[in-house]
Amino acid sequence: MQSKRGSLRIIYVLSVYVALQLIWWGYHIIQLSQQLELSGSVTRRVWMIIGEGSVFLLILGFGLFKIRQLQKRELASQEKEKNFMLAVTHELKTPIASNRLAIETIQSRDVSDEMKKQLLSTAKASNMRLEELVNKILISTELTSSKEKTSSETLKVNEELERILHENISSLNVVVEIEADYGTECEIKLGKLEFETMMNNLIQNAIKYHNPDGKISIRTSVHSGSAQIKVEDQGPGIPDHEKSKIFDKFYRMGDEMTRATKGTGLGLFLVKEIVSKNNGKITVTDNVPNGCIFTLSFPIHS
């Protein structure tokens, strides 16, 4: 990193030197043309040289501008990757430490059956957390390395949502409501694992930031031939200047060293990738008076 910055400094210094040299020689050529009585053709040639030098300066300035843009983009990417590594390290260490404590407690002393049951339950939850993290990384790699759509099937939206809430969310002691605005079940074409991954990430994101006194709602409806799924929470919301960034890979709001909430910055990125690869759309808006709404739209399968 330091060597790259050193190389860029050298480029900047050399560019400034070239620019100053062009300005210096341009100034002397003008002075010389004024002191000497040059013919019209020579004068035109002098101005042609000055014009070409000016164009070169503009090209040089544009090149420096693009280099600076690329540098900022690379630094931002490196910062996101650093945050991702810090987050993954934390996410891995916590369940591993929890499992080790549970095992050592059971091995080191006599514990009641009830205590063993609690410790094993804690270890199981930690293993599930590890499995979820590994799955996110694997799915992220698969989505970004392949341009082709994964195999899809016909899914009944409300039925799948009920199943996901029952199997994955009910144990979290959080109430998530499903509200359907239409009388009949609509169907979409999407891989079952992709749909589950997408909805789990959106729901868990809402749970992570939700207000304990608020509620989380999932609303399904049909608009202009598209199935819409809205995940609404009543948390702190997302600032407008962050809305365009939250779907970037590894992106998380704030600094990883001081952030209170856990995560890796992969969840919403996975949602965006799944939606894009299945001809869908996703938007995020404010939920008045507080919180945010993630809206998914997919073509209805007829």
Task: Give descriptors for this structure.
elongated; five-stranded mixed β-sheet; Heat Shock Protein 90; 3 domains; Helix Hairpins; 302 residues; single chain
Report on the structure:
The protein has 302 residues and is an alpha+beta fold. It has 7 helices and 7 strands. The protein has helices at 2-35, 40-108, 113-145, 157-169, 192-209, 240-243, 267-277; strands at residues 153-156, 176-180, 187-190, 216-223, 226-232, 281-286, 292-299. It has a 5-stranded mixed β-sheet with strand order 2-4-5-7-6. Strand 4 (216-223) and strand 5 form a beta hairpin.
Low-confidence stretches: none
Question: What proportion strand?
Answer: 5-15%
Choose one word for the global shape: elongated
Mean pLDDT: 75
Number of domains: 3
Helix- and strand-based class?
A: alpha+beta
Number of helices: 7
Please report the total strand number as a whole number: 7
Distance between the termini: 53 Å
Spatial ordering of strands, largest sheet: 2-4-5-7-6
Rounded to an integer, what's the Rg over CA atoms? 29 Å
Largest sheet: 5 strands, mixed
What level of helicity do the residues show? 55-70%
**Order of SSEs, N→C?**
HHHEHEEHEEHHEE
The CATH architecture of the largest domain can be given as: 2-Layer Sandwich
**CATH class placement of the largest domain:** Alpha Beta
| CATH fold type of the largest domain | Heat Shock Protein 90
Kindly report the name of the CATH homologous superfamily of the largest domain: Histidine kinase-like ATPase, C-terminal domain
